[in-house]
Design goal:
Elements (H helix, E strand, L loop, with lengths): L8 H8 L3 H8 L7 H14 L7 H4 L6 E6 L5 H16 L3 E6 L4 H13 L4 E4 L12 H5 L4 E4 L9 E5 L1 H14 L5 E5 L5 H16 L9 E3 L4 H13 L6 E4 L2 H13 L9 E3 L6 H4 L6 E3 L2 H16 L10 E4 L2 E3 L12
Parallel strand pairs: 1-2, 1-3, 3-4, 4-5, 5-11, 6-7, 6-8, 8-9
Antiparallel strand pairs: 10-12
Length: about 350
């Protein structure tokens, strides 16, 4: 698809039969312009895909050598390592990064996408918020043939280019490992099932139970936001369950560590009373006692792969249109928190 020609204020003026000075003022939110006219002009600008020109000098080159990154949180070990991977590749290729942060809000993510579009990024790397639905808010980029690559949290059934791990397989493996340790009452602590990563881990969990003839119990599925508070809440809910669950798969290491800590404070022995498996292979898993069994999720690789595909596309070496899904490896890392059967490694 050939990128459309850059829309100017003259195009908007022509469409609305107004002077370009009026259009220019309205787009700068000038108080002299009447509200209705302003709205009409802003709507037309949106419809035509106008980007305000913050880089007049770069306009002739049409390149800003910047890449936008949208992440859903910043305080995660995993996201930090993805950013390190992206940064490593983009720096070598001479690109700057602009990082925006949606704090798990669809609304903020949409605003960030539009903002990065106006900043004229050459390409975009994004991971979706908990409640994001659809990808319409990335339409500006697609219309202009600006490449977008999604990582980790993606819309699975879209045609977008995405870099993911096999969350279904990981959910299955983690649950199967707990079953192999003799667990029969396994709690799953996870986040919004609207999001692909959690929905797939949940499916892996339910399928592993099914394949081992263990009945699924919906009371054992705790949907949380995977924060510190969530780890405490999950532990308190687990403690109320009669009989006590004998296994827990918590799809985030930080929450798992906090949950384990809280259970221990209430006299629960890990792994003898409850075996625990986390997710992400965050550093915290090696600090908690006992050390946490987890899924190694190579964030650095994920960032590098996403960035490399984007840069190669921008350099014309390859076309991301031809690559829809890149699945990177992830493995179960077994430590003491899940080993009920001594001597198994």
């Amino acid at each position: 698809m050939k990128p459309k020609k850059e829309v100017t204020i003259y195009d908007i003026a022509q469409k609305l039969e107004l002077s370009s000075a009026t259009v220019s003022r309205a787009l700068k939110n000038h108080p002299a312009i009447n509200k209705n006219t302003k709205k009409k002009i802003q709507d037309a600008a949106k419809e035509l895909g106008y980007r305000h020109n913050t880089f007049a000098s770069n306009l002739r080159k049409q390149k800003t050598n910047t890449i936008g990154v949208i992440v859903h949180e910043l305080n995660s070990n995993f996201i930090t390592s993805v950013l390190a991977g992206i940064e490593k590749v983009t720096t070598q290729a001479g690109y700057d990064l602009i990082i925006a942060h949606s704090s798990e809000s669809f609304e903020k993510e949409s605003a960030n996408a539009l903002n990065l579009f106006h900043k004229r990024v050459d390409g975009l790397i994004a991971s979706l918020a908990f409640d994001t639905q659809g990808l319409d808010h990335y339409k500006y980029f697609y219309d202009r043939a600006i490449p977008v690559i999604f990582f980790d949290r993606v819309e699975e059934d879209s045609e977008s280019t995405k870099v993911i791990i096999d969350n279904y397989k990981c959910g299955y493996q983690a649950t199967q490992h707990l079953i192999d340790q003799g667990c029969k009452r396994i709690v799953l602590v996870t986040a919004s099932l609207k999001r692909n990563v959690y929905a797939q881990r949940h499916k892996g969990y339910t399928d592993a139970l099914f394949d081992n003839n263990i009945p699924f119990n919906k009371d054992y599925v705790l949907i949380k936001d995977l924060s510190e508070q969530c780890g405490i809440e999950a532990a308190l809910e687990i403690l109320k369950m009669k009989p006590l669950p004998d296994g827990a798969f918590i799809t985030n290491d930080f929450s798992a560590a906090v949950c384990m800590q809280t259970l221990k404070e209430h006299g629960i022995n890990i792994p003898d009373d409850i075996a625990v498996v986390g997710f992400n292979n965050d550093a915290i898993g090696k600090i908690v006692e006992p050390q946490l069994t987890t899924i190694d999720y190579p964030g650095m690789d994920m960032g590098e792969i996403a960035a490399r595909n984007l840069i190669n596309h921008l350099k014309g070496i390859s076309n991301i249109k031809h690559t829809q899904t890149i699945v990177i490896r992830s493995d179960l890392v077994i430590r003491k928190s899940s080993l009920k059967k001594k001597g198994h490694h």
